[in-house]
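Sorry, can you check?
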Amino acid sequence: MTLLAVDNVVKEYTRGAFRRQVTFRLEAAFRVDQPEIVGVMGPNGSGKTTLFELITGSNEPTSGRVLCMGQDIHGVKARERDRLAIHYHQSYQVRRFRRRKPDFLLEAANCDYPMVHLFDEPQFNAQDGYIGFMLEFFRRLRGEGRVVFVCLHPTERYHLDILREVCERFIFVERGKIALFPGYAAALADARVAAYLGEGARA
């Protein structure tokens, strides 16, 4: 079974009461068929957090669907969606979301423990072995058959080292579009990724 399928998902933000104008549009389509650690990169405002929110069901897509363990995440009871996919933002607090339908109209999650773990700009303490502890945690989740997304900005050199060491493939998000790469070298060969990461990325 495919663990996660982002099935032609589109999210549009608009403004204007009578003449709706699209102010931002995110388009994403990919699947994860086996346990892995995926690195997510891209400039601020490119749509990375929106992508994570769509995967966890805390944001409704304009079109398309997200399937986790074969279930449409947006059709699962709100209080049980984190049994399928869970979003940790920055200092590891879990993202909350608004309920649009009462839970009695939705189906139960078919998992008791999240299959997909999304770490959105996690804070790494460079002291006292904390980075090694977190990398081991990511690998342990993968070893248990889970999918792990790690989103980092290259504000420190060790952020690149983390992505290069632990991630098996990469998603680059820019202006609401995503690009998929099978590894760090393939990502760095793309001119857009190289420009984003800067000169230190090849060292």
About this structure: The chain has five helices and eleven strands.
